[in-house]
Amino acid sequence: MPVRPRPARSTPAALAGPAVLVGMLAAALAVLAAGCSGRTTDRDVELLGVSDARESVVGARGLFGEDRTGAWIDPRTVDDWLAERIPGALHMPVGRMRDRAEELRAYDVLVVYGRGFKDPLAFAAAKVLRDIGVAEVRVLEGGLTAWLDADLPVASGSPTPDEGIGMPAG
Question: pLDDT by residue (tens digit) across 50-71?
């Protein structure tokens, strides 16, 4: 019996030119690099210890020594914020962040804190801030509990002029 040559297989590589394959590969890599949903996850949230967080907000400096604006963001309830907060912290509930995106993006760095270690509310706030385009968002590791453990001052009661419920006036 004579041997017949095997017919050519129709594979994507055989059907497409090299330029098409390079384009498909580039698109696949872009999807992998960006993540499928484009949303911030817990793994994207950077935690800072108390001293690094303070430096980020109070002593914020750019690469060339220029001043940068930083702020503490407290997403807890208004009652919790009024009872005890980091001095100068802005009260900003997660549900209001998208409405205040333009104002929040004006800060160079925001450090979010909750009550304690890996507070889900702080993580949720950080993810929303990242998703609305705030470039540098961090979470205070240990939250207000770590701040208190470091014997740092707290504020309570009515807001000062640089604080505010929802955001400072200005």
Answer: 989 998 888 666 556 666 688 9
